[in-house]
Design brief:
Length: 241
């Protein structure tokens, strides 16, 4: 019943109160569901009603729009597991394997890493977590990302948050981030902004049409922005029954 309340409070556009999580099940889904089971899966009947299905939120926005900053606050306040696609890729690129080098070159160019690489890293992180509420930051960055996630993971997000921030502010934030990222320079930021418009906007459009998108105006202070997010995550609305 949490979902019905969620839909009512946050989006009159959500047309169906039916859970989308257990539809579109990929072949992988059965194994995936077992990772979240309460120990009551009946192999003949399939997934039992006690299986805990993951609650997935995607977070999108241009470079420097504040995704990582706000995700950290959501984790702290609402107990989500934070999976940053960019962070997973940066960890992977630090190995000097051929894949690591490919990731490094792609990130430096401000482009998008092939979806299968990113989705497999996300899959591994989900499988090794004890949590069942995930906030996936910086994903899906493209329609290819989205479709690959659906194919491999077989779960749809309940919610997609878009941080809408003006370009000038995003550039300012990235250039003063000072965390030693290879993409925090003006050339790469310009390319990332172009990639965002070309590849990520269609994803936002897709979720908007499904009634799942929540746009957050992201030009204010960290606290002001978090206050806009808070109602989306009020505890009882995201607890999985
Ligand atoms: N509301 C804000 N006001 C001012 N600075 C902010 C705000 N939110 C985040 N920042 C700062 O801006 C920089 C970029 O923020 P953050 O890393 O959260 O963005 P991001 O959307 O995750 O970017 P990227 O896509 O490049 O990873 C950080 O140094 C962060 O401390
Ligand atoms: N789905 C994703 C997420 C990230 N990347 C690459 C390309 C991005 O510019 C870079 C940094 O990501 P961020 O930390 O800003 O989320 O990582 C990707 O290819 N695909
Ligand atoms: Mg980030």
């Amino acid at each position: 019943m949490w979902r019905r309340r969620f839909a009512f409070v946050c989006s009159p556009l959500v047309s169906s109160p039916k859970s989308t999580l257990i539809h579109n099940q990929a072949p992988y889904w059965h194994e995936y569901a077992k990772a979240f089971t309460t120990g009551n899966v009946n192999s003949e009947e399939g997934i039992s009603s006690k299986v805990k299905v993951p609650f997935i939120t995607f977070v999108l926005g241009g470079p420097g729009s504040g995704k990582g900053t706000q995700c950290a606050k959501i984790v702290e306040t609402f107990g989500f597991a934070h999976l940053s696609a960019g962070e997973l890729l940066r960890k992977e690129m630090s190995s000097n394997s051929a894949k690591g080098v490919m990731i490094r070159d792609t990130i430096k160019e401000g482009k998008i890493v092939p979806s299968e690489v990113t989705v497999k890293l996300i899959q591994k992180a989900i499988e090794s977590s004890n949590n069942n509420k995930f906030i996936i930051d910086g994903f899906p960055r493209s329609e290819e990302n989205r479709i690959t996630f659906e194919k491999i993971i077989g779960v749809e997000p309940e919610l997609v948050i878009f941080f809408d921030c003006i370009e000038e502010e995003m550039v300012k934030r990235v250039l003063s981030r000072n965390q030693g990222r290879i993409d925090d320079n003006i050339e790469t930021v310009k390319k990332r902004l172009e990639v965002f418009v070309t590849l990520s906007l269609p994803v936002l459009d897709y979720y908007s049409r499904k009634g799942k998108l929540r746009k957050i105006e992201a030009n204010g202070t960290v606290e002001e922005i978090f206050e806009k997010l808070r109602p989306l995550f009020a505890a009882e609305k995201v607890s999985i029954k």
